[in-house]
Amino acid sequence: MKKYLGLILLINASAFAAKEPLIKVRIAKSLEQVHVSGRDLRRYLWPKKSLKKYAGPKSIQFNCKSKKRIKRRSPIRLASISSLTGLLNWEKERYKGKLHIQTSERFNGCDVINEVSIEDYLATLLPKEMNSKWPIEALKAQAVAARSYAFYKIQTNQVSKVKGFMTHYDLESSEKHQVSGSYFDATRKTILATKQTRGEVLTLNNEKLSPIFFHSKCGGRTLTPDQVWQNKVPGYRSVPCPFCHKHGRKNWKHAFPKSALNQHLERALKVYKKDYLSFKQSSVKFTEDSKLSSRLRFYVNGKYKAVKKSRLRSTMGRTSLPSNNYQIYDQGDKVVVSGAGYGHGVGLCQFGAKELALQGFNYQQILAHYFPELTLKKIY
Ligand SMILES: [Zn+2]
User: Fold this and answer.
1) What is the pTM of this model?
2) How far apart are the CA of 355 and the centre of ligand 1, in A?
3) Domain edges within the chain
4) Which candidate, 95, 254, 274, 294, has a CA 20 to 30 Å from the CA of 166?
5) What's the rounded mean pLDDT across residues 157-174?
């Protein structure tokens, strides 16, 4: 999964209410029509502040195409729908809690937000972000990591702060944040993994919340957030992972014509505006690289430059560079990239967690390995 950091705020864990929070998840955006059905529905219209109750089965349709384009910074919540007796149906999926319909951020349709208890949310997330058939202790480690990430987003109101307007949701169900499912995605095992870690999050010194990241396979060593993104996040350390190599995608190797790679390097360097220079007719020579280095170092017409490997990965795409754990070999007119792992490499290594669980380690031990500077805290 891909993560963007944006703003890093540390907040005090002891300030939390000892109550399970609700989370607002954006599950769809910019739809022309939204169709919600269910039994004994309650429909609240926000602009009018009117509540309507329907007995028995009912289907409600919103036409979002006709919504006038209004010049506003923040989306407007249009309606909230809940069911007194059951689940809500939307797009062949079933949801607990409420569905909110709001104007999309670009005012080109409607977004759908599911407001649900965080524990129900996590039970539907585990099969999507991990694999519901994996050992229970690996699923529990994943539940704590995903709960910590979600809780951080809720408590800091980070999405609204980064966007600069009130979004009316805490995070979205996508690879950008974390992918969650609907009611029937939860399995007996994912519900158990959630229940057995109920209310537990990772904290710094038992009091501060820090954003918690996870990825598929580190390939031998995890990375810290500042090696991959821009921000330094307290509580992270790069740790060896001799566990994940047995599982998942094998080590990878790709060769690129140097001219193609140079174009990507030029784009990657554009981000650092002061560093910008044209690579046309330039000779690029890499210095000796190692997998342990998070930066690529090279000379363009004799001028020294460095760029983060993660930056090159985002310009080349995840198919060309499946992870940030790679090494480049300069071979005249071509460049060979040899790498291990899959994903950004920060925080919990999921295949490593699977292997540790298979070896008999519990979720506390798994989390202590990948987050040696953080402690588990039960906040409700
Ligand atoms: Zn690993």
Assistant:
1) 0.91
2) 9
3) 252-339
4) 95
5) 94
